[in-house]
Amino acid sequence: MSALPQIVHAATDADAIRFRIIDAAERVFAARGYAGATTREIARAAGIRKRMLFYYFPRKDALYRAVLERVVVELAAIHERFRSEPGPIGLAEAADGITAFAAANLGALKLLLREIMDAGPHLRPLARRHIRPLFARGTAEARRNMARGVFRQGDPMHVLVNVGGLTLFYFLLVPLLRLVWDRDPLAPATLAGRAAEVRECLMFGLAGPAARGVRPS
Asked: Are 24 and 56 in contact (CB under 8 A)?
């Protein structure tokens, strides 16, 4: 009898446990911060023994890095999904994707932005492995669209910063918006309106002569 099915099953189980640990760690880190979170609490939230947690992640620092890396990889995947679309369409769809991801992953986004704002110890390796290559691809795409007249001329890096600012900064404001707005900032209808506003701003603030008069459907 082949041992392959048992090996595959064991690998699948191990991946499921690892994902469960990262999910639990994300919730605990987002609620308590790195210093306040304990491995005991994370193990309890994941429904496992602390000894098993250390089998997968020998240090709390390694687990925190895994949480941050997952959110960066998922954000990069959103960009990759729409790279083949024409400039304005791909840009608008990427903005939609980032908005939806941020709304569904507020805890992860909070951790990532905190790491960025604090210039935390994991920021440099994250930038080197994931964020810098993503920005390199993004600026190259923006430059190509500028050369074709689809985007107006400008600094391609500012294009990416504008996309990130319009999509992600909104979610940092959620606690304040709940105090000053007459609606739930995370309600589906409000998020749909937010995504539409971001598309409008990007498409017609950035579009060059070749795209004028073409409005998103």
From this structure: no
Q: Answer yes or no: is pLDDT of 51 > 80.
A: yes
Residue 128 DSSP symbol:
I
State both tokens at 106: 């507020």
Answer yes or no: are the C-beta atoms of 68 and 61 closer than 8 Å. Answer: no
Measured CA to CA, the distance from residue 89 to residue 81 in angstroms comes to 12
pLDDT score for 85: 81
Contacts of 26 (CB under 8 A, 6+ apart): 67, 70, 107, 108, 111
- Judge whether residue 61 has pLDDT over 80: yes
Hey, which CATH number is domain 61-211, 3.40.920.10, 1.10.357.10, 3.30.360.10, 1.10.260.40?
Answer: 1.10.357.10
CATH architecture, domain defined by 1-58: Orthogonal Bundle (1.10)
pTM confidence score: 0.81
Contact 88, 77 (CB under 8 A): no
